[in-house]
Each structure stands twice: as C-alpha cells, then as structure tokens.
Amino acid sequence: NTTVYNFGGGAVNDDPRAKDKTITGGKGSNLTEMAEIGLPVPPGFTITTEECVKYLAGGSDFSEALRSDVAAALQHIETAVGKSLGDNDDPLLVSVRSGARVSMPGMMDTVLNLGLNDATVQGLAKVSGDERFAWDSYRRFIQMYSDVVLEVDHGLFEEALEIAKEDKGFYNDTEMEAEDWQALVSEYKAIVEQELGKPFPQDVSHQLWGAIAAVFDSWDSDRAKVYRRLNDIPAGWGTAVNVQAMVFGNMGDTSATGVAFTRDPATGEKAYYGEWLVNAQGEDVVAGIRTPQYLTKAAREKAGAKPLSMEEAMPAAYAELAEVFELLEKHYRDMQDIEFTVQDGKLWMLQTRSGKRTAKAALKMAVDMAGEGLIDEKEAILRVDPMALDQLLHPTLDPKAHRDILTTGLPASPGAASGTIVLDADKAEQMSNAGEKVILCRVETSPEDIHGMHAAQGILTARGGMTSHAAVVARGMGRPCVSGASAVSIDMTSRRLRIGNRELKEGDTLTLDGATGQVMAGTVATIEPEMAGDFGTLMEWADKYRRMRVRTNAETPNDCRMARQFGAEGIGLCRTEHMFFDAGRISAVREMILAESEQGRRDALAKLLPEQRSDFREIFEVMVGLPCTIRLLDPPLHEFLPHGDAEFAELAKVTGHDVDHLKRRAGELHEFNPMLGHRGCRLGITYPEIYEMQARAIFEAACDVAKASGEAPVPEVMVPLVATKRELEILRALIDRTAKEVFAEQGTEIDYLVGTMIELPRAALMADKIAEEARFFSFGTNDLTQTTLGVSRDDSARFLAPYTDQGIFERDPFVSLDIEGVGQLVELAAERGRATRPDIKLGICGEHGGDPASIEFCDKVGLDYVSASPYRVPIARLAAAQSSL
Ligand code: ADP
Ligand code: MG
Ligand code: MG
C-alpha cells in the first residue's frame, strides 16, 4: 500500500483507500472527492493515518517508503503548479495540514506558506509583483512554524506585532506596509534565535519534514488527548497529513478568505451562511483579529452592518461559490461546512465537511432535506443524534419575563442558561463538580478551555465571531453560547467582569440567551419547549419505524402528563415510595414502621390507604387505557425513620408512645447494609399488610377510573427484588386475593398483571422458574448493575473517574448498560423467561432506558419496551427507531 495519495492537479485515484476517511482522514478524502467532482482544489497530497500510527509507535522515525513517496508526490504538486519548492526565483509554497478521521476543531494547527526563506521571499516578491504580500506571508510563516513546529511561545510574536503597530500608530494589520512586515520578519527571526539558540530553518526540505513530524506529534498532544477523551475517539486512529499548494487570500483587494455553511448551522434555515475577510489569509476569520464580514447581502442587511458582503463586493466569485454550495450539498446530501480562498478573483476550495450543527438545526435540516428529496425518512431519522434532542426539550427563556440586558453579543449557540460567573476553565470544572451551575466567561476560548466549557451551562466570550472556537465547540456540545460580546471586558487580577458601565464579579449570576445573543444579569424565568413542528414530524417518522414501545418512569400526575406529551405509551415504573415521603403522610408511614404488632401496622396503613388510592387515581386518569407498571414498596424501611429530636417528638404526639420507646424501636430497625437488607419483596413477605394495602389502593383506584371514564387503565403490579419463585408465588397469591376482594366490593373487574423486577443475578438465572409466576419482567438495571458488579451506585463517584480514564469501564455503567457483563444476564433472563411463558412482557426501567446505546441493546435482545424519565422519552423513541433501521 502506498503511504501517500495525490489530489487535485489532474491526479487520478483508482485506489478506494484515497477516499477512505480512515486512511486519508476527513480533510484529505474530501479534498480528493472535491477535486474529482471538478471543483477548484489546489493540488496536494495526503500522507495516510497509518503512517502517523507507525511514526508514533516507531520512535518518531519516517520510513524509507514514506520519504520516497513524499518526494514523488511533491513533484506532482510542482508539475501541476509549475513552481518548485525552494526555487529562489519562483518558489512553490505549501500548507501542511492535519486531518483525522473525524474533524477535531482547533486540535491540530496548520502551517501556511511553507517554503519561504530569506531567498525565496525575494523571488515571491518579484513574481507576484507585490512586496507587501511576500513579506506578510513570510512573517505569517515564521510565526506559525515557530509556534507549531518549534514550540516557541506565540505570545512573543503577537507582542512584537502589537509593538510594531503601536510604534506606527496603526490599528489594523492591513495598515502595515511591505517595509513594516520586512522589519517584523527580522524581529521574528531574532526571537526564534534567542529562544532556541539557533536560527530559523532556511532549508525548505527541513521545513517540510519538520511540519510533517509536528502534525504527527500533535496527535499525542495534551489538548488532542482531552478532546479524544471527551468525544470517545480512539488513540489508535492517528491523523493524516495534507500538503497542499498555497493559494493566497492576502494578495490585495481582489483576494479574500472565508468560511461558509450551506445552511444556517444554528437554526437549520436553508440560507447560505458564513463569514469572510478581504485581503486575509487562513485562520484570520476565526482568529478574531479582524471582525469578519457577512457572506450574503441578506445577512448583512439583517444585521444592519456596513462593510459589504461578499455577494456585493465580489459578485463573480460569490456566484461561483454559491454554485459550489449546491453541488456539494447534492454530492454529500448534507449540510457542508466549507473553507475557501479567493486569489485575485479566482475561487479555490480548501475544505468541506459535514457541518456541526445545533440540535435544532439538525432536526430542521433532517426534516427539510427529506422534504426536498435529498434524503429519505429513514436517513432523516438517522441524522439526528437522540441525545441532542435533550437540548430541544429543555426550557427556553420566557419572552414575557423581565430581562436586565447587559449587552448583546453574537447568537453563537442557542438555548438559555443561567449560572454563576466563572472566569477560567479549571474553576468552572471544580464548581460544576461541586454541583453549581456556572457560566464560563472568557475573552475568547481555546482548546485548553474545553473541559471548562463542558462543565459550564453556558459560555460567554468577549471576542470571536460565529465561527470562532467558542462558537463551534459550544454548538457541538449543545451549550448555549454568546460570542463576540465586545462590551465585555474581563480583569483576571480582580476577577471582575465589566459590561458597559456595569461591574460584576466572579460568583454573581448571569443569564445567556444563545438564540439572541443577549447577556442578562441574574436569573431569568424560562418556558417549556414546543413539541410540534419539525420535532413532531421527526417523532412521527420515528414511531413508524420502531418496534419497541416507549414508556416512562413517573410517579406524579404532572410527570405523567409531561411524559404523555413527549409520547410515552404507558408507565414502566411508578415508584410508590416517593408517595410515602409527602409531608402529610410521613408520620403515618413512621407510625406503621415503628408499630410493634400487625394491628398497629394495619391501623397506620388504614390512614395511608385513601392517600395512595387518590395518588393512583390521578395517575390512572392521565394514563387511561395505557399500561401502568406500579412497583410495590421497595426501599429499606430505615430510610423512613425519623431523624433528630424534633421528628421523634412530633411522632410521639401522633402515636401516643413516648420518645424513648420510639428511639429504641428505631434503633432495632437499624441496618448495616440496607441496600441488601430488609427491603423489596422481603417487606411484603414479613409485613404482608403493607403490600395488601398498596394492592387494594391500586385496584380500587383502577375500578374508580374505569367506572368514571369507561376506559380502564391496565395496572401491572410489580414486586421488587425477587430472588426466588417462591417469594413471588406468595406475594402473587396475596395480590390476586386482594384484587378479587376489591372487584367483588366494587362490582366490576379490570385486567391487571402481576410480575416482577429482575434486579438480582439470581433472579436472572432463575428466570424460567420465576416466569411461572410472573406475567412480566421489568429489568431493574440500576440494581442489577449494582448487584452484578458489586458496586454501590451512590458510592461509585469516588472511583469511577479513574476507572473510566484507565479504560476499566468504557463508560459509567450506571449511565450506559454494561452490555458485555450485565447485558448477558438480561439476555439470558429474557430467553429463559420466554421459554416458560412465550408471551411474557419484557421491559427495562433503569436509567439505561433513556440511553441510546442501551436502548439499541434492548432492541436487539427483543425487549417489548423501554421506560425512561419523561424528558428522555423522545430520546428513547428516536433511539429505538434508529436501532430498527
Ligand atoms: P483546521 O483543521 O484547523 O480547519 P486547516 O488545515 O483547514 O485547519 O487550515 C486552516 C486554514 O488555513 C484553512 O481554512 C485555510 O484558510 C488555510 N489554508 C490551509 N491550506 C491552505 C492552502 N493550501 N492555501 C491557502 N490557505 C490554506
Ligand atoms: Mg486550526
Ligand atoms: Mg479547516
């Protein structure tokens, strides 16, 4: 296999590896594809990711094969352009660019204008007839190469430039003349020599290999590692290197550089969207050095901005660009994120990729593109990341709420966020770990800030456009972001934030509206999201293709209503213990627990019966006609015990017992390891009257609702923590007997099921026997994970991070099911249960019911439904559909 692939300049690639992202990376494969469909791509070549992996594993050595392949590929560029690298009269300049399999924004730096030295810069000045351009290019090259390859602090160069401008009284880089740049080049070279003890490399071949090595090495840089960890990117992928002939956007007013999206990445609207700068190069647009200008006339007018849009200033190049947009969307059948340069009026394409987008935009684009016939419904379903829906389901700012607007920046990533002001990423992470909601406020962000951006509810930057680092990363993470709020100044010494004439300090609260760019003091009220429109359409499509049903975990009528709006098709888990904690009830519960006789317990339970009945009635009213799994009391009784003297005194009043007696009784109920103690069905076995009361409340409520509405709910009475068939046999008899009694009293009957949770390994193993008594199984994967791994969920935070960091767990097993281990028990129990009772209903009710990877597993092993918390119901619907496709 060759180590290098050529693109552009008439290169023909028959080898499919040339367009395989795993081999040539995202950037390289797309450059090859663009060239093949006839777009203007400067010629270049791509060194494969395999070479990067070999280089890093092999002690940073280039193979002979690579050296000779690169030499040949360089000739391809030289022939295509008609210039050669290092030619003193007419030098070829190249860029050296990284490009991994997936785009890693800002992770690896590009070196531009490589091939310049003290001699070639003169040649470039002569052939271009533009001294200023030549020296500008050279100073850019020295700075970039020194920063990226030689690791000289880039601050030194920025400082030198600032001083040079100040001396001249200039404000913009564009005011610098040829001589100014030339003088700066001397200074830059002096800086390098001083920092490194040797001169800036003049040998162009040395420059090239240095840059290639730097790209390879950057794969293992700290910031790349952080990004990989946050995005689950394996270290073994490596990055490709692209070497490409330079085109110049800095050749005067007929040249420009820009970035563009074929649709609006924030809203999804079908409108070209982008930013550009005249007489600029490379990353000037995203670096925030000059304020970029609008691409289209419409966008400029909408923003009320003066500087001409590209559409107005360079109509011919713009028209060509618009054609390219259309071509690329048709070719890739997706929204494209494009980088381009105009050299002396001629358009060049430097990059395209599927653009990152907000959840809202992903949804709109998927539905729109299906409407346009660009993709089909199934593809549309697959285009939206289920977890991203989370952003859409959460509240936005109430338009009627008062807003104390401090300033308005750019609406870089939508959504509303309130939190405490934090000025650096480390602190943001610390405070968020401590449970605080924070807003990260920075002048601008860089890859070093990613962990803090992740930890923050929202991000505010003083500088940077819509395509700045902060904006791109925030959109990718789904964090609301306001960027380029130029009225904001940050003083890191006093840790204060000045916005206009208002001063805030770290610790004050701030609200951001990423949809409008508004920055507000304090916390602003929010409203519920819109379920109709594109969201509704996509959900409808998802429902068409999914096999599994989706239920919700809910125990209040409000949650049930919300879940139904989100499309829940029943309750998968109604935890009854939450109902016991209500202020008005807890003393009756305590009375029941502390009673010393069955009669004592029955007296207390009699007080609870009407309360439970009305709880269930309200829930059944909302869920009429739908199955509702209600779990009988599960937690260890000790959780309900009174704490502190006041509570004991209160209880003494209610029960007539004295405090000492109650305390002694509470002491008797103390458990060493309650999680494995007197809980679950063990309560029902020892105190049958508790489950009897709950069963009665369920059936009475169900009969009431059936009579009132004519449509009965379908209660599924679930017995928790069963390990043996016999436990369920005893409790099922009790539930059936209670049902019979209630139906006789009420003169009506309803359908119901009795089943169990599978949450102990033994229950999974004995599922064939247990299924003789159970009409349904619900996998309680929270406890099943705890009991299978022998890990307490509530204590796992102390060691989980090192465990996931070292790859012991791939992901937190309480968030995403341990498919390999716990999954076996689920699969086996499902099989054994079905062997005994082919129509047994199978579902999952742990947290995992809202996790897409776990949902896919549930689908594969044939569960009938998953159950998730209300906000996760749409996520589960979409994930279930994706799994079916
Ligand atoms: P990133 O992966 O960070 O986007 P790129 O490799 O795309 O880095 O390079 C950044 C920018 O450098 C590009 O957007 C483009 O403006 C400029 N650039 C890269 N290669 C060339 C080239 N051959 N000619 C002109 N500009 C280039
Ligand atoms: Mg970059
Ligand atoms: Mg790029």
Describe this structure in words.
With 885 residues, the chain is an alpha/beta fold. It folds into four domains: 4-245, ATP-grasp fold, A domain (Dna Ligase, domain 1, 2-Layer Sandwich), CATH 3.30.1490.20; 256-357, D-amino Acid Aminotransferase, Chain A, domain 1 (2-Layer Sandwich); 394-527, Glucose Oxidase, domain 1, CATH 3.50.30.10; 548-636 and 671-777 and 863-884, Phosphoenolpyruvate-binding domains (TIM Barrel). The protein is 46% helix and 17% strand. The chain contains 35 helices and 33 strands. The radius of gyration is 33 Å and the shape is elongated. The model has no long low-confidence stretch (mean pLDDT 92). The chain binds adenosine-5'-diphosphate (ADP) and magnesium ion (2 copies). One magnesium ion is lined by residues 339, 351. Residues 42, 95, 97, 106, 110, 112, 244-247, 257, 282-283, 339, 341, 350-351 line the site of adenosine-5'-diphosphate.
Low-confidence stretches: none
Q: What's the overall average pLDDT, rounded? A: 92
CATH superfamily of the largest domain: ATP-grasp fold, A domain
User: How large a portion of the residues is in β-strands, by DSSP E?
Assistant: 15-25%
Helix content: 40-55%
Q: Strand order across the biggest sheet?
A: 14-24-23-16-17-18-19-15
List bound small molecules: adenosine-5'-diphosphate, magnesium ion
Which class do the helix and strand fractions yield? alpha/beta
Function: Catalyzes the reversible phosphorylation of pyruvate and phosphate.
EC number: 2.7.9.1
Enzyme class: transferase
Protein name: Pyruvate, phosphate dikinase
